Amino acid sequence: MRFDEAYSGNVFIKSHPNYEESQVVIYGMPMDWTVSYRPGSRFGPARIREVSIGIEEYSPYLDRELDEIKYFDAGDIPLPFGNAQKSLDLIEDYLDDLLADGKFPLGMGGEHLVSWPVIKAMYKKYPDLAIIHMDAHTDLRENYEGEPLSHSTPIRKAAELIGPTNVYSFGIRSGMKEEFEWAKEVGMHLFKFDVHKPLQEILPTLAGRPVYVTIDIDVLDPAHAPGTGTVDAGGITSRELLASIHEIAHSDVRVVGADLVEVAPIYDHSEQTANTASKLLREMLLGFVK
Description:
Blueprint: E1 24-29, H1 44-51, E2 58-59, E3 64-65, E4 71-76, H2 84-100, E5 104-109, H3 115-125, E6 130-134, H4 154-162, E7 167-172, H5 177-186, E8 189-192, H6 196-202, E9 210-216, H7 238-249, E10 254-261, H8 272-288
Parallel strand pairs: 1-4, 1-5, 5-10, 6-7, 6-9, 7-8, 9-10
Antiparallel strand pairs: 2-3
């Protein structure tokens, strides 16, 4: 991969022009080839960048400014339309290169399956990796109508790779009965409906460990994020999600990478969802990168 030239399109606000000097690399994974309901999340990364110009550079929550961190927006990974396996392979190769260069990866999806190759790359570097997963859906299916490469399978794949006891899912309110039963049987940590309170209880047990954070925007109630492929009623508020990000930021866990996925701007003409995602990414940058 070449990272020596800045992305020529819109970039996330205050992106640094030099890859080598940057601690963090922001990148897009514009893939929605396996969605089972509404496509459109492949346009999420571009729109999040475009609306980021409207957010402030200062976080009153964390009392930090974006100028305090050097981050490089590398643009979107060029993925072959419709070819899920090749796309996943390209994402994993891309992450291998970022991690070899010592960069903190901050990804934007795309459907949630894009997190799977990222987690594979992270696990190669951090064999004691733990995952914090915030989502409306379990994503624990083995396949969707016979297809193992599906946006409903990434957390199952991750749990089988790193061990289910190292996966912590929060805000879950939708999934097949078999998925919930499997999580219970194998000792995976799955917390239904809420995020912030159970997260507070879990974080001390992860102190010092490398943690990858993956957030599906549909963990938010549709009232707060209508622009996503699979909306699900009964979610948390944007305020609770922000508080949860800050809880991680103030904890003793070692966040080594993160992503935010499933923003599908076509379903939200108000751009509320993209703007919320942009603010969440700002807080993740300022909170997770020390």
